[in-house]
Request: fold
Amino acid sequence: MGWRAYLEGSRGRLDIVAGLVDGILNALTLAAGRILNSNKGADFDLAIRLAIATGLTTIFVFFIAHYAELRAELTRAERELNLLSHGRLATSRLGQRALQSAAGSALLAGACGIIGATLSLLLCVYIPGPRWVGLAAILILLGTLGAFLARSFHGSPLIWSCSVAICGALLTFVGMKISIVN
Reply:
């Protein structure tokens, strides 16, 4: 499957939107205390540092999830084919393709996580007015992404949009209270 077909498919959309949402939620949780409770607020340096951390964790999580899913599919195929030796498909070209596919998906989600974290924190830097206005813009962005996520698996865009935005607001509140980044 080519990259274009992958990106147009539901799995590609899911990696993109989930990566963006993950990046935004990580940024909200980690930086909300600094944005709302300190005199520093968000800055470009904070956006880059949190984006890198978010991207790396997103890559790891998505790689493990995708690779485990693909390996499980190979194991199921072995059972259905009544192969006598286990793990044979995983060591074949199919196993290599599963590894490459999982790595590509993880890198895409990680890149989207970096973009989501950076974009969300830069909104807080460049939107004029009180600091909460930037956070409100992030929650609107998050709700919009929730609607796109719902479309990837035929869910209700309104319910997903509201749910993801509310979860973002809750994580912002938690981040404000525990104030991880000072």
About this structure: The chain has a mean pLDDT of 85. Helices lie at 3-8, 10-37, 44-80, 93-126, 131-152, 157-178. DSSP finds six helices and no strands in the chain. The CA atoms of residues 35 and 41 lie 4 Å apart.
